[in-house]
Amino acid sequence: MKAIIQRVSKASVTVGEEQVSAIGRGLCVLLGISVEDTQKDIDYMVRKILNMRLFEDENGRAWSRSVMDRELEVLCVSQFTLQCLLKGNKPDFHAAMPAELAQPFYASMLEHMRSTYRPELIKDGQFGAYMQVHIQNDGPVTIELESPTGPMDPKQLSKQEKQQQRKEKMRAKVPSESGREKAASRPKVDPSASSGAEGDVSSEREP
Asked: How far is residue 26's CA from residue 191's CA, in Å, rounded to a whole number?
């Protein structure tokens, strides 16, 4: 699951000519649900969103209080386009959870957030509707958050695998290369010569 979290002075959602939700100061959260998301992702995102310290305390010290500490509002908006994967310049949304599954999943997340916090302070848009989201960002403060178990771009995964393979090959080469370097840097000893540091080589060979 992915989220774009914005600290706002105010935010609202309009569908057509009707305003369906509005909040004052607090957080506006755009949520992108993936096909691989589970209850663990919900638990993680709710905990982070509600406890992230994006607000000042009563003495004006920044980054000290969470939305729960300040008893502020949260506006959540379902945003499947956050799961976009670009194929050239064309957006692909196959990583997003299908609407018929995403709607109850999203509702479950809202319920979890409301039961963790105060239900009257959690607002949301209208799932699946064409919405106008009006956000007055305060700061601006915008945080990108992704649950640890969320999906990974296949291209990015392939890139990481190739990088790991290159590292393993380099580690395998290092001992042999260092051994050759040591051999090349080791001074050649003339068997018939003597060294004050190591003793007389020729005398050591005598019976």
From this structure: 83
Distance CA 157, CA 169 (A): 19
Range of the domain at 172: 152-186
**32 neighbors 81 (Cβ within 8 angstroms):** yes
11 residue type, one letter = A
Stated pTM of the model:
0.70
Residues 85 and 8 in one domain: yes
Task: For CA atoms 93, 146, 89, 159, give the dihedral sign.
Answer: negative
Same domain, 168 and 77: no
Same domain, 144 and 160: no
Mean pLDDT (whole number) for 61-77 = 97
59 and 7 within one domain: yes
Q: Is residue 197 part of a domain?
A: no
> Hey, which residues does 23 pair with through a beta bridge?
11
pLDDT band at 161 (very low <50, low <70, confident <90, very high): low
Please say whether the beta carbons of 60 and 106 come within 8 A: no
Tens digit of each residue's pLDDT (9 = 90 or more) over 80-115: 999 999 999 999 999 999 999 999 999 999 999 999
Number of domains composing the chain: 2
CATH number, domain of 56, equals: 3.50.80.10
Q: Is residue 204 part of a domain?
A: no
| Band of residue 154 on the pLDDT scale cut at 50, 70, 90 | low
